[in-house]
Amino acid sequence: GVSLYTPRLSETAHSRFRVDMAQDAFNLTGSRSTPFLSMVPCSWGAVFFPDTWKRFRGYLRERLDRGSSLKVVVPRSRINGWSASWKRFFMEMSFRDGLYMLYPNFGPNEASFSTNHLEPGEHIKADETKRKSTSHLPEDFTVPLLEEDPLPSQLPRRRLPRRLQLPKFDLHHRVVFRPAVQDRFG
Question: 112: which DSSP letter?
Answer without folding.
Answer: B
